[in-house]
Design a protein that fits this description.
The protein is α/β, with parallel strands linked by helices. The chain has 9 helices and 12 strands. The two termini are 31 Å apart.
Length: 278
């Protein structure tokens, strides 16, 4: 284990609005306990775009890092000194590391977190994939697929404007993105990997159309869980990657970046998340 963490009191937190539902404090605190960081704390703060500059202005040397959720992943850019290539590629920062010199570095652990969650389930390369939805998480999914998918990705969306956005992200990320209307979404299930990035309830009506021998479903939701789609997929014998898997893997990377200690305790963090959801 290597790193720069010390026994001195350090602070970290997750920011967003709404934020009360966030499992991040559970995961990070579990990691701190396992790593022996008794003087570290991790909290949650309800902060919107208008309040973000003021929050940053109040940060002092005790702060080690921040996790960001919606609607702050793009609003934070003007407040940063440096942005990683990964975060810049999708114009979304979910992690801010606060250096000893006061520098604020933005990163994105969602993308490598997706790749790690898939790898854990044995998915390292696919010849094609499908994405359900076209929001911010969908662009991160495309970035993850740029690392593991060797062929086309079909995005199923609800409007021509969303279709154009996804094709634009594909061009930027080097992914061969094709688009189709949401009415054809069940065709996604022919792909060896399906990533569902839509809000709760959106894919429920698709559950009855899961094929007899599906591939892998990565459903980014973790509550409520399992979703009707994930349940149907599992009954048909398909592999499932859950939103909790993503949350834990991206949080592992956040802990390592903020504390400087690696590896972060993946299994301990996952168990804490599962206990909280129960």
């Amino acid at each position: 284990m290597t790193g720069r963490a010390t026994a001195e009191g350090r602070r970290a937190a997750v920011l967003g609005s709404p934020i009360a539902h966030s499992l991040s404090p559970v995961l990070h605190r579990a990691a701190y306990r396992e790593l022996g960081l008794a003087h570290w704390s991790y909290d949650r703060f309800d902060v919107d775009e208008a309040g973000l500059p003021g929050f940053f202005a109040g940060l002092d040397a005790s702060w080690a890092g921040l996790s960001l959720t919606m609607p702050l992943k793009r609003a934070v850019f003007p407040l940063l000194d440096e942005v990683s290539d990964t975060a810049a590629s999708v114009e979304a920062v979910n992690t801010v590391v606060l250096g000893a010199d006061g520098r604020r570095t933005g990163d994105n652990t969602d993308i490598p977190g997706m790749v790690a969650a898939l790898r854990e389930r044995g998915v390292e390369k696919v010849e094609s994939a499908a994405v359900l939805g076209a929001g911010a998480t969908a662009s991160s999914a495309l970035a993850a697929l740029s690392r593991i998918c060797t062929g086309p990705v079909t995005a199923y969306v609800r409007s021509d404007a969303r279709a154009a956005e996804m094709r634009g992200w594909g061009e930027r990320l080097g992914v061969d993105v094709r688009t189709a209307g949401w009415s054809a979404a069940t065709a996604a299930f022919d792909a060896p990997l399906v990533i569902a990035t839509t809000p709760a309830g959106t894919t429920d009506a698709l559950a009855a159309s899961v094929p007899d021998r599906p591939g892998t479903l990565f459903d980014v939701l973790y509550e409520p869980w399992p979703t009707p789609l994930a349940s149907a997929w599992s009954r048909a014998g398909g592999e499932i990657v859950s939103g909790l898997d993503l949350l834990v893997h991206q949080a592992v990377l956040q802990v390592e970046r903020m504390t400087g200690l690696a590896p972060a305790p993946l299994d301990v963090m996952r168990a804490a998340g599962e206990d909280a959801l129960r």
